[in-house]
Amino acid sequence: MKSKAKLNITNLNWGVSFLSAVMAIAIGLLFGLVILLISNASEALSGFAAIVQGGFADGAKGIGDVLYNATPIIMTGLSVGFAFKTGLFNIGSSGQFTMGAFAAVYVGIKWTFLSGSSHWIVALLAACIAGALWGLLPGILKAVANVHEVISSIMMNYIGMYFVNMLIVSNIHDKIKNQSLPVSKTAIIPKAGLDKVFGSQNINIGILIAVLMVVIIYFLINKTTFGYELKACGYSKDASKYAGINAKRNIILSMVIAGALSGLGGGLLYLAGSGKYLQVVDILAPQGFNGISVALLGMSNPIGILFAGLFIAHITVGGVNLQLYSFAPEVIDIIIAAIIYCGAFALLFKNIIFKFSKRKEKEGEGI
Amino acid sequence: MDYVIEMNKITKTFGDFKAVDDVTLKVERGEIHALLGENGAGKSTLMSVLFGLYTPEAGEIIIDKKKVKINNPNDANDLGIGMVHQHFKLVHNFTVLESIVLGMEDTKNGFLKMDEARKKVEKLSDRYKLKIDPDAQISDITVGMQQRVEILKMLYRDNDILIFDEPTAVLTQQEIEELMKIMRELTEEGKSIVFITHKLNEIKEAADRCTVLRKGKYIGTVDVKTTSKEQMSEMMVGRKVSFIIEKSDAKNLSPVLEVKNMTITNKFTKKNVVKNVSFNVKKGEILCIAGIDGNGQSELVQGITGLMAINSGHIFLNGKDITKKSIRHKCIEGIAHIPEDRQRYGLVLDYSLKENAVLQTYYQPCFQKNGIIKFDAVRDYAKKLISQYDIRSSQDEDSIVRGMSGGNQQKLIVAREIDRNPEIVIAVQPTRGLDVGAIEYIHHQLLSQREDGKAVLLVSFDLDEVMNVSDRILVMFEGEIVGDLNPKNTTVQELGLFMSGSKRSESYEIKSKA
Questions:
Q1: Complex ipTM, two decimals?
Q2: Does B243 fall in a domain?
Q3: Angle formed by the axes of helices A118-145 and A93-110, to 10°?
């Protein structure tokens, strides 16, 4: 009897989290519909259908594209969500992503002495290390000098962007296209037949690596003493200090891991062999900021982040199809923004749902 | 009978929980009527009903022989009912005068007119000997004065029925005596007072009649003069409670904890909050540090446990110098700490009971293997603590601590700290805000530590606790130890003099001058 009651309550919590995310998505999509109606009412409904259909519109290939698009933002989402869990706001995911991407591409182009599958693996490891380094600096500043990680990691974003531009130009520059040179074939992440299954050239085992990372981070946060410490620091700095937990070490490690996840995301995208090159432009990598969206929508839960990443990728693919109806694909960005906006109210929705269910319960008792 | 308040058969429920169940309270004009009960007995809920904060499901309220409906505090105010809440409701960056007037300001053309208000406040302050400084900021004045401001607020509104919700919890002995005097003067003026408390001494001293509640139910109303403390406490708790803590004499063994010349400087004000303090705690001894809140006791303890850096001095545990060691190291070496702010330091509120049960031990081999937490072992351990220390919560070991009652949160901390089998337990205000049952329990736990030959360092502002539990008392005043007393040869009044800095033990006089 008792255990049953317990189960119900945990179910309720999970259900409420899920439900509030769904509410945020629904409101965001409705908002998108309104925008479509305003810009071109006659095509609005078919355009909206394209968004909702997303990747499913193009059969297996569409799904393949969704998985390809989801991979980097699952990684950055995981990075931001992991830091959130430990009480840190890693807004520097973008810079870490860029650094990771550069390191992977650099190794992919220059370290041709590596042969076979060791090449792409080493390239991805380099991506992790470069991202970790970009997380390490704000982590040290926070732990030692109490510099807020938001400020320092925003600055690291810009430093990363310009630094990478500089490094591309001086090392791996394709002067004609003003972008990075193509990586060597051995550095491209294997497709392991996935391209045949989905009929898409973009997909590779990167998505499996991302899923593996989700599982690892989930395990790390929930099952290990390290995760226990990190969460304790995130929930209550004072109580964790009281418990003798080394908060400084944990802040640094947490930022390093978050950075490594973002960096790996960069590596996974630019080694996908999908014809994407590092451009020499003064724009922060948007994947880092999408990561914040994904983490918010997934409520910092690794499993939630996996699905949030897939969903955002899904409507992003829908956004490409939106162009068929002469809409700008940027509408998708607005919709994502609206969803995140509502996602920020997730807590509010949670409370509303909670109150609502309680009132229902009460009424039920009254009868 | 001339009843000024009649609350008949009041029932107030929250969900399934009957906080107040068919309770009747009748207060005569001009009396001090005590409302006695343990935490959660429904005292505050009942008074919140009277003050219009809650609407009861059943029952009637009669004020001055007229049946009334009180929907909000403004209604209550119109009926002449005022309340001093347990946690004062004052605006910290207002002056005393502004706080008193707030909500009843006189204005002319939209501008404040404070002159008349000032006159009225000063007159009231003189008349009832409620000393205040009308221009001081609330954040700068003592808790005692804040309370006087709250009382003046009620008087300024011409309230005739005054409710005091546990008014003595934050006061020193001298302030308590002053408050009792003020309360008696107020009743002589014809005002009626409802006095919520769970301290029997105060009821004996001040109240005329006493209504006892237990678990939301009405137990009875008694005449205070003809009823003994034991009888009242039995009504309150439902069983006999022993007030005299029986303990053998201290054994006077070797010291466990030694503090030598400890000085701590506040980072911001650069003032020495702990000044050259030395003492030791012996095996089988409960050493109590008494003093008024804010005289360096908290900093002293945080300095010992490592939560705060010390500027100079040394700390020895069983002869080993642990001054520079980490909190974790001190923990392993056998310092248990029941912190002052249990919610800030003692618990991770968003963790479950079982996760909090292993807050300092999660890394030990019995709870983890290769860095992976053995949740089954953690669960079993939490279950053991729950049954052994009678910790109550809605979902046992899976309860989120934030949702647990204050008493049970504290029991969890006490259980966790004592179960680690420490050399010394450092407890700061371990019974603050707890009911008689929980207090008795915690005192019992501290005493059993003492019986096992462990040392206990207790910091307390509650003089009854200081006198009853300790083997030796050190008094702190402005960061210094000013007295070393034996509770057997001293009185509460004398202790009060030490605490207010008016008296010093001879040995400490010379030392501090030198």
A1: 0.78
A2: no
A3: 150
